[in-house]
Amino acid sequence: MKIIMLGAPGAGKGTQAKQIASAYQIPHISTGDIFRANIKNKTPLGQKAKEYMDAGNLVPDELTCDLLMDRIGQDDCRDGFILDGFPRTIPQAQALDQALTARKESMDFAVNVDVPDENIIRRMSGRRVCPNCGATYHLTALPPTKAGTCDACGSELVQRADDSEATVANRLRVYHEQTQPLIDYYERLGILKTVDGTQPMDVVFAQIKAVLGKELEVSNVESRCD
Ligand code: AP5
Ligand code: MG
Ligand code: ZN
Q: What is the value of pTM for the model shown?
């Protein structure tokens, strides 16, 4: 099963993608997480990506596409994967299609987590992340058991560098200009599924499972027969 998560910054792509990846046993590939890990480790890629990310702009397609194609070529992606934050531009979507066509494959679903702009700003100001293990929390919607501390690893939670109000406003502008056209792109390919991302997290997850469910049951039966 190969799934794309679409949606504005803060729509809940990462929150849902982690759950889908765990429920259906496929790797969760977040280009944002990969860039942040590179920034943390001070790699040459991280140094290049940082200035774009800090400003809330997109990292250039050539850097992002090479990285993503390399990742989906790895062994653990043979039976599928879930992409979170890629593609983000039409050229990225075309590059993905070409790479998969060369493997005689195609994407199965593009899940659009729909959240209006006015909800986004509120979500982002409440997000807290663990700089050590990457777990994501929200001050009111998903608070950690002990305030300010990661449940999973005990590290002190922080705000993401690009979650300031001014940067979020730019990320939303960039989203509408460059990423939103992908909704029509995947609608035309017949694989778009839209869910209401303003619902509580577990309700959104149930909606996603419902739209993926039938096909997943079929693919599970097929894999059991192998
Ligand atoms: P990336 O890391 O992908 O950020 P993003 O798309 O802006 O999305 P976020 O991670 O901010 O939000 P999300 O949708 O994952 O929401 P989350 O689940 O955390 O990219 C960052 C940067 O990297 C980009 O700006 C760009 O510079 C660069 N980049 C990455 N990929 C690129 C690409 N392909 N091309 C070029 N550049 C690229 O949820 C948000 C908050 O809301 C959390 O606190 C969560 O707990 C809470 N929440 C989630 N769901 C709900 C709910 N249903 N109800 C209430 N609260 C909720
Ligand atoms: Mg995310
Ligand atoms: Zn942690």
A: 0.94
